[in-house]
Specification:
Elements (H helix, E strand, L loop, with lengths): L2 H18 L1 H10 L18 E2 L3 H7 L16 E4 L3 E4 L10 H7 L6 E4 L8 H11 L3 E4 L5 H10 L4 E4 L1 H13 L12 E4 L8 H7 L3 E8 L3 E7 L5 E3 L3 E6 L13 E7 L6 E10 L8 E2 L4 E2 L4 E3 L2 E3 L1 H8 L5 E11 L2 E10 L21 H4 L4 H14 L3 E5 L12 E3 L4
Parallel strand pairs: 1-13, 4-5, 4-6, 6-7, 7-8, 18-21, 19-20
Antiparallel strand pairs: 2-3, 8-9, 9-10, 10-14, 11-12, 12-13, 13-15, 16-17, 18-19
Helix pairs in contact: 1-2, 6-7, 9-11
């Protein structure tokens, strides 16, 4: 798109959002910025970045979408992201704009595709379902889990494509091979598309050896597909309906190619336009034309992505506020065999530091205590279940000796390398 066309489209978006969404009108009026004053991308820098972590408070003040919804009718679906944040389904038959990226990988009419993203509250399952249906592919709405069911399904339905996380892809297909399923015979799968987590180092060669084309995308629940690539091309190609700026996380000032900064999005959508929306992700431009991103190189703030879901320390604080039996906790994100793991260590109060429930302080709740470490221990099970409900990520909760954990405010650490 040429510069003049891009500027005109931006002007139309700002005017449309101002006229049709009370939240955007209030925001611009509060900044004393008239819509006609934003005539090009450079003018966007006058508008402060709207950070994702601000949305929960804004939505509580003006439910459910903080006045940012511009359409005259309700969205087709409403999703719930951690925060909590209510996300409306955007407009169109491919609302999140994944069809183009899937087509470039080779997905097409006649494909039978296993969609392993969740359809429960999260939009990820619907993101790919709608895109695949636009391409006239057949979708198996698998969701997460059920590996034992999926393996014979690959053969019985002659599945040709997969969408989901790369770690689960490798786990599923390796398991199928271990059970005697062979590529080109029982397994017809020839294309895959990944998002939500980094690619395991072994995946590219593993796919090449089995003749599997693949691509990957960078996106968010709020925006949908922001950029994508088809292996083995370098960099992530930005989608045409998304204006991306790489900005200084402190000032919001756009940075030059090569400099790492926050990914800030302006989304051209008639139902849910977004203007200078800060994703919290860090990246940089690979080219002077600002069309390809380097990928995600870090995060702004304390949000940590675990198995495709952002988890925040404040969520964990809220969980443990409901369990006075827990004196202190420490959460760590690790990666084992290419799969993220949320591990939470807990110290218990005096009355809970025994395996027999007697409350005697001389029976400390040590990791060596087999009864205390059982997964079905009532308190640990309750904590783990509550964490799963709040974050939608399964955690491994284990007790440790009282006094072992650091009592600082930073109780959530990402210990993955790369």
């Amino acid at each position: 798109m040429e510069r003049g066309q891009s500027d005109q489209r931006l002007q139309e978006l700002i005017r449309y959002a101002y006229d049709n969404a009370a939240g955007w009108r209030e925001r611009l009026d509060g900044l004393r910025i008239a819509p006609e004053e934003v005539v090009c991308e450079a003018d966007l820098a006058r508008i402060p970045v709207l950070r994702k972590e601000q949305l929960p408070a804004l939505q509580r003040r003006s439910p459910p979408f903080a006045g940012l919804l511009a359409g005259q009718s309700l969205p087709a679906r409403i999703f719930l992201s951690p925060g909590p944040i209510y996300d409306p389904q955007p407009a169109g038959d491919d609302p999140w704009r994944f069809a183009r990226s899937l087509a470039d990988v080779g997905f097409r009419s006649g494909d039978i595709v296993l969609n392993t993203f969740s359809y429960h509250l999260s939009p990820a399952g619907f993101m790919f379902d709608s895109a695949l249906r636009k391409l006239q592919a057949t979708v198996i709405p698998a969701g997460v889990g059920n590996t034992e069911l999926f393996i014979p399904l690959l053969r019985d339905l002659a599945v040709t494509g997969y969408v989901g996380t790369p770690s689960y892809f490798l786990s599923l297909l390796k398991r199928a091979e271990q059970e005697g399923f062979r590529f080109g015979e029982e397994i017809c799968l020839s294309k895959a598309f990944f998002t939500a987590e980094p690619l395991p180092p072994e995946l590219p060669l593993w796919c090449e050896q089995r003749g599997i084309n693949f691509g990957e995308a960078y996106g968010t629940a709020d925006v949908g597909c922001i950029a994508y690539r088809v292996h083995p091309l370098a960099g992530l190609l930005v989608q045409p309906d998304v204006l991306v700026q790489i900005c200084d996380p402190s000032t919001g000032t756009p940075l030059q190619p090569g400099e790492a900064g926050e990914v800030v999005i302006t989304l051209f959508d008639s139902l849910y336009p977004l203007i200078r929306f800060g994703t919290g992700d860090l990246s940089r431009w690979l080219d002077e034309s600002k069309t390809r991103l380097a990928g995600i190189v870090g995060r702004v703030g304390d949000g940590v992505k675990v198995r495709g879901m952002f988890v925040y320390q404040q969520q964990l604080d809220q969980v443990f506020a409901r369990f006075p039996q827990v004196a202190c906790y420490q959460a760590n994100v690790t990666r084992m065999e290419g799969r993220d793991q949320l591990e939470i260590q807990v110290e218990l109060t005096d009355g809970e530091r025994t395996a027999d429930g007697s409350g005697r302080a001389d029976h400390s709740f040590h990791p060596s205590n087999n009864t205390a470490n059982r997964e079905d221990h009532p308190l640990l099970s309750q904590v783990a279940e509550r964490i799963r409900e709040v974050t939608r990520v399964k955690a491994v909760v284990t007790p440790v000796a009282y006094g072992k954990l650091d009592r600082t405010n930073q109780r959530f650490h990402d210990q993955r390398n790369g």
